[in-house]
């Protein structure tokens, strides 16, 4: 179909506007990336205005990764993202699968209780008292168990399980499979799009954990990466290794800002690297429950 001059002008204007918006959004990311790799001497000489570094260096990354507190924080965040995501997926999928089967007694009551959690929030104090009474203060598990599942994710995954034919489970039971075997051997393999989508949501949430760490973790050796990064960004007088900015620049000759930018890059890259591998399933998973035929 032949397009008019007005249509082509309209498309060109849209492309131009979207290109400008993209550049505006990507510029801060590029600036953080460029500064993190800038040679410390060049950064000091240019007084921080570096867009195209003359010399690229890994000094900031080497210093950060050599500090014990940053290493511990990276390990803690990695543990939260891997173990927390795995446990959350198992609990969410198991609860949603049980609620999707009509033979479960009391399923309406359980669904009502889940809906209540979506409508009413307990606030900060009740969860803190619960964590304290369970003896989880200063424990990494305090960052996992209170947020192990989400009522909204349970409802969405339940709608996905509702679309799985019951005949598949019945035939598996006839072949001698148990309910647990049906769940792990049939239901979960058919639920890869949902697991990929919610797995990404959980992983991002666990990796970005910092508020619960402020409430429950007093030992700085157990701080997650985001809490260490937050303290670095809001307090320029101290760094990941505990040294002051003046001492660090005297001993390491590394500007404070390049360390901050390097920490931001380290905290951002893992999630950005995981997403492309889950994109195929993620596109399907985000449509859960939106269309029913």
TrEMBL record:
Q: Which Pfam families does the annotation name? A: BPD_transp_1 (PF00528)
Superkingdom:
Bacteria
UniProt-listed CDD domains = TM_PBP2
Ranges for the ABC transmembrane type-1 domain? 74-278
SUPFAM superfamilies for this protein: MetI-like
Keyword Magnesium on entry = no
- Topology in membrane: Multi-pass membrane protein
Q: Which organism is it from?
A: Paenibacillus sepulcri
Positions of transmembrane segments: 12-33, 75-97, 109-128, 140-161, 182-207, 258-278
This protein is called Carbohydrate ABC transporter permease
Keyword Protease (UniProt): no
Q: Which family does it belong to?
A: Belongs to the binding-protein-dependent transport system permease family.
Q: Which UniProt keywords apply?
A: Cell membrane, Membrane, Transmembrane, Transmembrane helix, Transport
The listed locations are:
Cell membrane
């Amino acid at each position: 179909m032949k397009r008019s001059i007005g249509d082509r002008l309209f498309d060109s204007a849209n492309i131009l506007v979207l290109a400008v918006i993209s550049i505006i959004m990507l510029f801060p990311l590029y600036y953080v990336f460029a500064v993190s790799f800038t040679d410390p001497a060049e950064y000091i000489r240019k007084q921080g205005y570096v867009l195209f570094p003359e010399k690229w260096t890994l000094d900031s990354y080497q210093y950060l990764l050599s500090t014990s507190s940053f290493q511990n924080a990276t390990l803690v965040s990695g543990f939260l993202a891997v173990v927390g995501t795995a446990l959350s997926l198992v609990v969410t999928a198991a609860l949603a699968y049980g609620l999707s089967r009509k033979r479960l007694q009391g399923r309406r009551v359980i669904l009502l209780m889940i809906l209540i959690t979506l409508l009413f929030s307990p606030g900060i104090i009740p969860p803190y008292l619960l964590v304290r009474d369970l003896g989880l203060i200063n424990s990494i598990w305090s960052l996992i168990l209170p947020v192990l599942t989400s009522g909204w994710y349970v409802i969405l995954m339940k709608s996905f399980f509702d679309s799985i034919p019951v005949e598949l489970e019945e035939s598996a039971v006839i072949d001698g499979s148990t309910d647990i075997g049906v769940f792990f051997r049939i239901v979960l393999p058919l639920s890869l799009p949902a697991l990929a989508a919610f797995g990404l949501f959980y992983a991002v949430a666990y990796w970005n954990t910092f508020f619960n760490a402020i409430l429950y973790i007093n030992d700085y050796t157990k701080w997650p990466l985001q809490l260490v990064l937050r303290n670095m960004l809001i307090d320029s007088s101290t760094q990941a290794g505990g040294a002051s900015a003046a001492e660090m620049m005297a001993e390491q000759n590394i500007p404070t800002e390049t360390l901050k930018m390097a920490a931001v890059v380290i905290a951002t890259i893992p999630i950005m690297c995981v997403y492309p591998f889950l994109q195929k399933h993620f596109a399907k998973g985000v449509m859960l429950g939106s269309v029913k035929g």
